[in-house]
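hey so u asked for the seq, here:
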Amino acid sequence: MKKIKDLGDLNQKIVLLRVDLNVPLKNEKVLDATRINKVIPTISHLLEQNAKIIIITHIGRPKGRNINKLSLKPICHYLKHELKIKIKLITQDLKNLNKNNIFNNKDEKIILLENIRFYPEEESDDVEFAKKLANLGDIYVNEAFSCSHRAHASVSKITKFIPSYGGLHLSNEIDALNQITHNIEKPVSCIVGGSKISTKIKVITNLAKKYNNIIIVGAMANNFIKYNNHSIGKSIFEKDSDLIVKEIYDSAKLNNCKIICPTDFSVGKNLTDISNNKKIDEIESDDLILDIGLETIKFIKNIINNSKTILWNGPAGYFENENFAKGSYEIAKEISFRTKNNKLFSVIGGGDTVAVLNKLNLINNFSFVSTAGGAFLEYLEGKELPGIKSLN
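ran it, structure tokens below
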């Protein structure tokens, strides 16, 4: 893959920069700017090279319709504030734009195209639409790893019509993921949480071929506990998951990988309750498992201390209630400490996991933090991503 850092002279070149600024908004204010902040180094790099930038991104799922509440106006305002530079939001139909008049004067450095998903041709990966986009610039840069599992016009098809490169963050993301999937320093462990085991079975079975330990936490662990004939009270679980759990156990056994589940829990009677630590055989019918317990935390920290590489995706409990955040917080602190002391290579992924790090202000203490969701998981499954394939 050709990378943006390998480019030479960019003076006055028009760079089409595809990013993923699909961030949560409320009252036209950005609630979480993590994804925006990740691409600012690339924007700054291009500005230093005296390039002109056309930013292409989306918010939400307008399904080819112009929906005012999904406008990029709040994103434009945030970028102006962070970069301290004028940025113009183009709201007119991009099919009527041409390369020669998109920048009206020499002082304009950045143009932001309105939500690319307002156009139905984007998600249908339309060839002519991709060609029209490509004709607006001299160079294309994909800085949207989190969109790269989508075969969309501005992600994959566009590369057929314009010299194309991977951005700084996208390149770092792929390098980091390669270190936890191919170039692994062992012992290697994975901590995986979340609620739905069916969405991560392919990830787990694929990693079981290469990993020493896979630690199951969060609501996902309830499926394993139930499978092993222990009570989970009134805790949430995924129905008809026994075959999935069995497949994971079989894959792990075949590849000499340990599947580790919690042996004690922090429980409550409802989501707003205080925590009560219970062992696995003490769970009552009206208990709600909301976090891992103290012994499990201690055990997981020991595994972290004996690992050289860690992948963490999914919190350990219902961290929205501070009474059930201890498991996630202790895991985050331990991985952070080991990483900062150069004893661990750590990759963190998943929106909820990133939220935990933000709460603790530890976001910069890990080897790599991925803001990608589906693309992150599909890469870990071993799938070929359209947006990456098109850059190769």
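The radius of gyration is 23 Å. The first strand starts at residue 14 and ends at 19.
lmk if thats what u needed
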